[in-house]
Amino acid sequence: MSHAAAFPLAQAPTGAVAARATELSKVYGQGETRVTALDSVSVEFRRGEFTAIMGPSGSGKSTLMHCLAGLDSVSSGSARIGDVELASLGDRQLTRLRRDRIGFVFQAFNLLPTLTALENITLPMDIAGRKPDQQWLDMVVGTVGLSGRLTHRPSQLSGGQQQRVAVARALAARPEIIFADEPTGNLDSRSGAELLGFLHESVRALQQTIVMVTHDPVAASYADRVIFLADGRVVDEMREPTADAVLDRMKRFDAKGRTS
Ligand SMILES: Nc1ncnc2c1ncn2[C@@H]1O[C@H](COP(=O)(O)OP(=O)(O)OP(=O)(O)O)[C@@H](O)[C@H]1O
Question: pLDDT means per 10 residues in the chain (260 residues)?
């Protein structure tokens, strides 16, 4: 069943740009400790698209995600969410934008230990003073397989279940874009596959927009496209990736040096 009709995402049409980096550079430190983590990166993430970001360790994947999500400042160039230039926002506006328009799934799940699974899932909406759409919430909770666990606290859940709470939390508020950093990093392969299948489905049927950093070619194969970074630059892009094709591309980084 398609959920698109029942749960239209109203914010912007599919195909509109959900996030964009334009000649974005990020430099950490100065003098001998200076590191150019991102070197004039230009890339777009369209609404209703699932993009994986891959590349060798230290290539700038997390930095790109953090700059686009307003968690880190840019040194030059621009990062936008929709039409909003993040550098033009003050701290409070930035906090509000992250709260209202962006969902996050990090490897450290950042669940609050004193709250139940359900309270963790609805926390961002509670803080924003928004009432969850019960029908939508039920669907998200059911799809991530948490229906019988909603009154449990994080310490009473397995790592995989905690990760699913974190994903449900990101999806429940129906943000314009979800940034996920190694969302399957702590899961066994079966739980990981379930989670990725769910993310894929939320993009296909619900026009959710997802940007996911991963090292795993199998995880990347669930995306619509893969962006490859090396030494802080976008060096390649692959549409309709397969795990084998992604693995082959990653091997070329190892075999021929980082920018091959
Ligand atoms: N806060 C920081 N201060 C100084 N240098 C940093 C900081 N954060 C990242 N870097 C450097 O910027 C570069 C890019 O780091 P980033 O974490 O974005 O890479 P990555 O591709 O996500 O790596 P990994 O796959 O290992 O997680 C690296 O050389 C890293 O050492």
Answer: 43 76 96 95 96 95 95 96 94 91 82 94 87 87 85 90 88 90 82 85 85 95 97 96 96 65
Spans of all domains in the chain: 17-256
Is any atom of ligand 1 closer than 6 Å to the C-beta of 14? no
Pocket test for ligand 1, best of 34, 41, 59 (most atoms within 8 A of CB): 59
The ipTM is 0.97
For residue 59, which atom of ligand 1 is closest to its CA?
Answer: 21
> What is the domain class of 17-256 according to CATH?
alpha beta
How would you classify residue 23: left for phi > 0, otherwise alpha for psi between -120 and 50, otherwise beta? left
Query: What is each CA distance from 61 to 64, 144, 182, 229, 234, in whole angstroms?
Result: 5, 26, 11, 7, 10
pTM of the model: 0.87
